[in-house]
Queue: 2 jobs
Job 1
Amino acid sequence: MLLTQPDLQLDPLWALTAECAADLRLNRLNLVIGVYRDEHGVCPVPQAVQEAELRLASIAATKEYTSPSGNIEFNAGITDLVLGDSDLTQRARSLQAVGGTGALRLLAELLAITGPERTVHLGVPAYVNHVPVLQAAGLRIQEYAIENEGYLNVDAVVEAVRGARAGDVLLLQGACHNPTGLTMPVAVWEQLGHEMNRAGVIPLIDHAYFGLGDGLEEDLAGMRRMLEIVPEGLVAVSASKVWGLYSERTGCAVAVMSNPERGTYVHGVLEVIARAAYSQAPSHGARVVAEVLGDDGLRAQWRAELDQMRERITGLREGLVRGLTAASDAPEWPALADQRGMFLRLPLSPEQMARLRIDHAVYGVPSGRINLAGVPTAAVDRLANAILEVHDR
Ligand code: PMP
């Protein structure tokens, strides 16, 4: 008989989404789940992705197994894209994964297998799935607070590294931090890289939103700088947001290693982990991304579409902060303008977030996170007024 698990943790965000769907108020705003939405509330498939899908369908390629590493062109394309034309790319070995989550899980298991004593140092508030993924791989977690009055607490991150033991891991989000929107300037990535070298700490970088903060190259620059400084590092790449491929479960685990022998070993371990879990990752999303990245025209089109997504998000953030600061001189608002990406973290308590839901039909996460991309431009002023009303009550 199956035993019951007393502390079963279902995803709380899906419960809130269901509550929103059942809300009959026409002006309800679902700002819970982290997907990009256009002005009409649609989570679109980019044109470049649609075009790639048409091309792939028209050549009716085989559905034969790909390889233990998945789609090799996809792995190479993603690695070139995120690491750039550099020595890092030469030192990297990659494996296609089942979404960014799957990449995180593969890398977490790699870390656990190769160092059972390791602790992962995790800044909180963290992405809701980080703790479950790391724990499922059997890793120990040490949390530290990353925020200070709405801004990144750089000293806290440095302290976390200095307090770590050699072989420990620092988990960082590459850009557009979920749920806080906090970003790390390149100089801080560089500083941390030197601290990590001194402490023997390995970076595990989760990149799910590159291109949605300050620009594609800008959002990748910090990670690249750190990886140039440290001997080895691991990157979990998600194709979900950047190519709109959420349900295709497309991602990539990238390991930048110090020499080819270690690269071959680590790659082999990743293949063994994947084989024991699901054998090979699903093919479609990776083929699409490989097609987009491998064709100059599609690639340029995708870049333009990514820019449009970013501009929409940036415009919404600016509009909301403008609305808040025009009506209120509370000290919390200016920090919101410094955040980047799809998420904005409101300085509101869980009770105030509940008021936002009950009184204003605005559904965000109790921690204060809202998905900016879920806001139609015409609703920005209403949202600002609703936030002010629950904040000042
Ligand atoms: N990391 C972060 C920070 C995320 O927000 C997400 C998606 N919500 C992921 C990883 C995983 O993305 P995927 O859907 O590709 O598994």
Job 2
Amino acid sequence: MIKIAPSILSANFSKLVEEVKEVEEAGADLIHIDVMDGHFVPNITMGPIVVEALRPVTALPLDVHLMIENPDQYIEVFAKAGADWISVHVEACPHLHRTIQLIRSFGVKPGVVLNPHTPIEMIQHVLGDVDFVLLMTVNPGFGGQKFIDSVVPKIEALSNLIKEKGYDVEIEVDGGITEETVVPCAKAGATIFVAGSAIYNKKDRKAALQAIKMSGES
Ligand code: DX5
Ligand code: ZN
């Protein structure tokens, strides 16, 4: 079974509540919230007040992807705003083990994110400490970018490493996920799929979401 995490980055922000409810009714498993600071990535999006506003409108876990410098400074506020999962970029965390423990200390599921060019060796010593690893399949910063195929062998290598070590860690992928690109990622071992434009840019969100799910499970 795979999980679909629609990214609200591609939603219509003037009616965000309805946009979240729509994908929940369409069968989403998580709501993916992209936090960008204009420093770690060249775009600025939303902060903890959006997480706080969305918390009461959905029963789904809120999957908060922090694309920010110095994430340690903001983990508490995102946890208190209602984040259920928080992921941080290895490229932004010089004290990664400490950051992961900090996330867990608030009862939130910790995840670590790797940019497309970052090798999995960077996280081998924290694999036993996280609940999930998020592999970027585009360069973070914007929705609607093209899937980078060269990440697929990395998904497979990570999946093998997790199995070999016997860890209970899920692999999430983010960027350019469509009905087509979900297939090689699922075969390689990813089980959680973020999709922004492939869901929100479609008129029938339910059909779009279900098509990605079916394709990933086939
Ligand atoms: C990119 C974000 C993604 C983005 C994905 O930096 O992390 O979550 O919303 O958008 P799509 O699915 O359109 O590539
Ligand atoms: Zn994301």
